[in-house]
């Protein structure tokens, strides 16, 4: 059941909120949390009972291990062994569900075998809920757990706005909210804020992402099928997908944060105008921010610290320190992030591309000789991003490199095959309009900066960016929100699935 389905908007969400509000009002905050946990399991169960069973098994295992680890603090060796085994179990489960058939393909190609694919259906959002729980185990191992019971753990690990595609939440930021006495469930101001965010996310998804998606699909699918196309078509496909993915996932994140706000739970920010970034490091601080935060905290930091120790013991040169403390950790971290997204060589290459770009940027900054003019730095950053997303979206390496080659005028076409046909004028119009939206208009959190609906700290200068469009409770705001909702709902089509559901 997708956020953009009518059954979710008009049935599941309002009924869940009414039930939550009534239970909390008459049975207390603890029972309200229990109801929210049950609603989250029902939501996920609608994708299929076997998938719910996998989620429940994962949560039961990690909850048990997480609550056992602190009790072993006196025996650090035993605690470390249990923690290591638990993380391996999570990764093996994720690997089996998501990567088994990829390894079958690799074995077939490398050894000339003909092994058949296994009949495996990876649960929706398996990468998200698995990594959220690995983060929980790390916090348990480090003695940083906030007191909780299994119902609170379910809400943390499987809260229905987040379980399918994030944002990736940290244990502490969720458990601390769930441990506090709940605020009034019927706080109308808070509900209005949540509904506004949900409506803006719905608008992004339906009116923007879905309207430009057909151009991206036509080009990428045509390239995979061996159809002919020119450099202009290749660029239209690449830019269309870049904007589709942004409005799709940014819209989803807004909707998830809005739903959390309706229930009185603040979720972390996931997007912060990433196309305004003027270097690749800044881009990743703005794009899929919770994923970047996760890999920085749990992968990069450890590698960088280890590299620093090695550099110090070896009395490494300036380049050696840069390589061990920055370049190598960055490359490996983004390689892991690429693999996390999916089973395919294109995801591995995508991660390697961004890992290399980050390493080059850090090296350039380390040299400190001169900086690029902001327009040049922005153009290079966006060029890196769009080339990476071609690799990310393409069905395989062959079509990815074919598209990249055509984009830079070095691709050839097969003879006697169909040509990719798109309405180039309409596509370019949408690309220009949507690009202007991302670059010139304030984002969701800037519009709502007076209320600040996310758990992250509020930047001191954010009020300077929103201007006259800052959200305030008023009759005109209600009319605008109702209009956005009406346009979004009446535009819902049959193909409104979120791109990130498959990750």
Q: Explain this structure to me?
A:
This protein has 503 residues and is mainly alpha-helical. It has three domains: 6-181, no CATH class; 187-267 and 424-503, no CATH class; 279-410, no CATH class. 70% of the residues lie in helices and 0% in strands. It has 19 helices and no strands. It has helices at 6-27, 29-45, 49-68, 76-111, 126-141, 150-158, 171-179, 188-224, 231-262, 280-286, 289-314, 318-341, 345-367, 374-393, 397-407, 424-440, 444-447, 463-466, 475-490.
Q: Sketch the major β-sheet.
A: none
Oligomer: single chain
Taken from the alpha-carbon principal axes, the silhouette is globular
Alpha-beta content class:
mainly alpha
* Distance linking N and C termini: 16 Å
Rg computed from alpha carbons, rounded to a whole number of angstroms: 23 Å
The domain tally reads: 3
Q: Layout of helices and strands, plus pairs?
A:
Layout: H1 6-27, H2 29-45, H3 49-68, H4 76-111, H5 126-141, H6 150-158, H7 171-179, H8 188-224, H9 231-262, H10 280-286, H11 289-314, H12 318-341, H13 345-367, H14 374-393, H15 397-407, H16 424-440, H17 444-447, H18 463-466, H19 475-490
Helix pairs in contact: 1-2, 2-6, 3-4, 3-5, 3-6, 4-5, 6-7, 8-9, 8-16, 8-19, 9-14, 9-15, 9-16, 11-12, 12-13, 13-14, 14-15
